[in-house]
Specification:
The protein is an alpha+beta fold. It is built from 10 helices and 11 strands. It folds into 3 domains: 154 residues, no CATH class; 87 residues, Helix Hairpins, CATH 1.10.287; 135 residues, 2-Layer Sandwich (Heat Shock Protein 90). Helix 1 packs antiparallel against helix 3 and helix 7 packs across helix 9.
Length: 428
């Protein structure tokens, strides 16, 4: 990701570069046109001045012819020749290209030409003059180099200003961002933003204060609800379960009554489990857990495996494990225990008798694979109360809880079906 100033600076530099590239031919055309105009005036002045000088000499026709011939000889870029009445309606200005006389190669020079009629001794003469205009290219080169130089100065200055602006003007914004990163709803403390003379930052701080106050209020309400629900619902459920246990111990129950009470007890147990899981999901959604503990993950995995050893033996499931020692993660120990237990219980529940389960723990991931026959629907797998099998003993929330815990821990959980094995992988 790029800083905001860099994103605005780059388009500006590109724009300046485009203008620079466009300006070079424009400079050339403008300077060349000005240069040609100056040369046209220069050539016209020379023609008029030459005619005046010849007229001032008051030469005879023979002397005039000799002097004009001499002039044409010593001035190779000009030519004066007598013509009948004025053959030109107006002066003719042209640009011609000729090979450079002192060059042995094919170098070409440009000349600005003027053809005009002058009058000497009351006779009309066609005066042709050519002036080299190659100097304009040197001028263009100098202008281009100068422009590039100032462009580099602008770029360097912009980069320096960019850094200084980033460290001064944007400092309040970075401080605000840092405070937001460290903000924790569990502490329920408002953030004290520093005062700034920038109107936009002050508006941002005011809006953030309102948003934080509202979130704290909502968080308190939700927390109170989950705490009340946890207490108010679990207490009557526990009383009902206790009464059912007493009723099951009554020897006067008929077999049919016993079956009815047993079904009620199973439904009540499942309802209690669903209630606990929903409350757990609500607490996770509300970020009511601290995730700053340093936890030895491999120890929790081995503890969970020992607790569930009886379930492995009941279904005669073969267990293979590859668990690296000293695997530490940051998070909440209670939630991570729930994550490990849910993954193991899910694998046991959906593994047929005589099946197999493999457990793998590395520095980067925790993987549980169990034998199966067909792939599960990935679109429904982690949704609440969705079922991918006919097993109704679960609450339908186990994988959803795993997904939420991974989200809370900034981990990811993935499912794959390979070689007749369901594979769940948690990437740290």
């Amino acid at each position: 990701m790029k800083p905001l100033l860099n994103k605005t600076t780059k388009p500006f530099l590109i724009y300046v570069l485009i203008i620079l590239v466009i300006s070079i031919p424009v400079y050339y055309w403008v300077v060349d046109s000005i240069w040609k105009g100056e040369l046209d005036e220069h050539n016209k002045t020379i023609a008029e001045k030459t005619a005046n000088q010849f007229n001032n000499l008051k030469l005879s026709d023979e002397e005039l012819a000799k002097n004009i011939k001499l002039w044409n000889h010593i001035q190779p870029e000009t030519n004066i020749e007598e013509v009948p009445a004025d053959p030109l309606k107006k002066d003719i200005y042209t640009t011609v290209e000729k090979p450079k006389k002192t060059s042995t190669g094919s170098e070409i020079e440009r000349y600005r030409c003027l053809k005009t009629v002058v009058y000497i001794n009351d006779k009309s003469f066609l005066f042709t003059i050519q002036t080299n205009i190659e100097e304009s290219q040197s001028t263009i080169a100098v202008i281009a180099v100068t422009t590039v130089f100032f462009f580099i100065i602008i770029v360097l200055g912009l980069l320096i200003l960019n850094r200084r602006l980033s460290s001064t003007i944007w400092e309040p914004f970075r401080n605000t961002l840092e405070k937001l990163k460290n903000f924790n709803l569990n502490h329920q403390n408002n953030i004290e933003f520093e005062k700034t003379d920038t109107a936009e930052f002050e508006e941002l701080h005011q809006s953030l204060n309102k948003l934080i106050e509202k979130n704290i209020s909502v968080f308190k309400t939700q927390k109170e609800f989950t705490e009340n629900a946890s207490h108010e619902l679990q207490t009557p459920l526990a009383i009902i379960k206790h009464k059912l246990d007493l009723l099951l111990q009554n020897e006067d129950l008929t077999e049919k009554q016993y079956e009815i009470v047993e079904d009620i007890n199973k439904a009540l147990t499942r309802s209690s489990r669903i209630n606990k899981n929903l409350l757990l999901l609500a607490k996770i959604d509300n970020s009511q857990f601290d995730n700053s503990e340093k936890i030895q993950f491999d120890v929790l995995v081995r503890q969970s495996m020992e607790l569930l050893e009886e379930h492995f033996q009941q279904k005669n499931i073969s267990v293979k494990s590859y668990i690296l020692p000293e695997i530490y993660v940051s998070g909440n120990s209670g939630l991570i225990e729930v994550l490990i237990n849910n993954l193991l219980v899910n694998a046991i529940r959906h593994t047929q008798k005589e099946g197999s389960i493999s457990i793998k723990l590395t520095e980067k991931s925790f993987e549980i694979a169990n034998s199966g026959t067909e792939e599960l629907d990935k679109n429904l797998l982690f949704k609440r109360f969705s079922r991918n099998s006919a097993d109704n003993n679960g609450s339908g929330l186990g994988l959803a809880i795993i997904k939420e815990i991974c989200k809370f821990q900034n981990w990811s959980v993935n499912y794959a079906f390979e070689n007749n094995h369901h594979i769940f992988t948690v990437n740290f």
